[in-house]
Amino acid sequence: MPLELHLAIPPDTPTLATLFFTTFSDAFNTKLFPRTPDVHTWWTRALTKDIGNPRKRLLKVIDTDADPARNEPTIVGFALWSLPAPVSNAPTTESKTGSEEIQTDELEDGLSPPWPESCDGALCERFFGSNYEWQVKVMGDKRYYWTHPAARRRGVATMLVNWGLERAREDGLEVYLSSTQEGRFVYERLGFEVRSTGEVDGQTIYLYK
After folding, report:
1. Is residue 29 part of a domain?
2. 3-state DSSP percent of the chain in helix, strand and coil, to 5
3. pLDDT tens track for 37-54
4. Which residue positions does the secretion signal occupy (predicted)?
5. Which domain holds residue 54?
6. CA angle, residues 40, 152, 10, in degrees to nearest 5
7. From CA 11, how far away is CA 7, in angstroms rounded?
8. What is the CATH number for 166?
């Protein structure tokens, strides 16, 4: 299965939304994002928005041997990478100790409210809010790369994660990600270590760097 890694483009986003549904099909993710048309539309719009964000990279892995006539999927995985805020020519603010600190703008995140009507909005707030708090707890105010991969075929997730690992090494920065139990094998094999865990509605989340 010859695989190629590319940047996703807006016409890919409906396919990526469908791939999210098939990849994250466990009970918790189905509860978080029901398999309904408005959720699919929301994911399509969210991913399209992130493609247009200069501080994000939406990657796809394609199977060049796939035969659409046999309903074989061409896109077999994707990952959304958030890039660290730039430091050059960035405005500074004076800290409480009198030293200068880099002031960074927040990412315009496609995966944010308003949530789809058929979703449990309170659960979405708990899940995404908790993930942000855990991320800050693990990484503090460091600059770092972080990602949301969606792939389960052998080697696809590794390709998607290695893209960011290589760039983080070049920049001398760390990488952060979170995962459920299903993804632990891939990330720990790539050298990630669990730094903390969290829980939302009975779902354990592993926090890696």
Report:
1. yes
2. 40, 25, 35
3. 999 999 999 999 999 999
4. none
5. 3-85+119-208
6. 40
7. 12
8. 3.40.630.30
Report the C-alpha gap between 48 and 124 in whole angstroms.
20
CA dist., res. 82 & res. 135, Å (int): 13
The counts of H helices and E strands in the chain are 6, 9
Lookup: tokens for 118 = 């058929």
Single pTM value for the model: 0.87
What order of strands is seen across the sheet that includes strand 144-150?
Answer: 3-7, 56-63, 75-82, 144-150, 174-179, 203-208, 194-200
The answer to whether residue 109 is domain-embedded is no
How far is residue 189 CA from its own chain's centroid? 19
Task: Classify residue 65: in a domain, yes or no.
Answer: yes
- pLDDT for 86 equals 83
80, 148 Cβ separation under 8 angstroms: yes
| Exposed / middle / buried, residue 172 (Cβ in 10 Å: 0-12, 13-18, 19+) | exposed
- Does the residue 91 lie in any domain? no
Do the beta carbons of residue 121 and residue 151 sit within 8 Å?
A: no
For the chain, report the end-to-end CA distance as a whole number of angstroms.
Answer: 30
Which H/E stretch holds residue 57?
strand 56-63
What total of structural domains would you count in the chain? 1
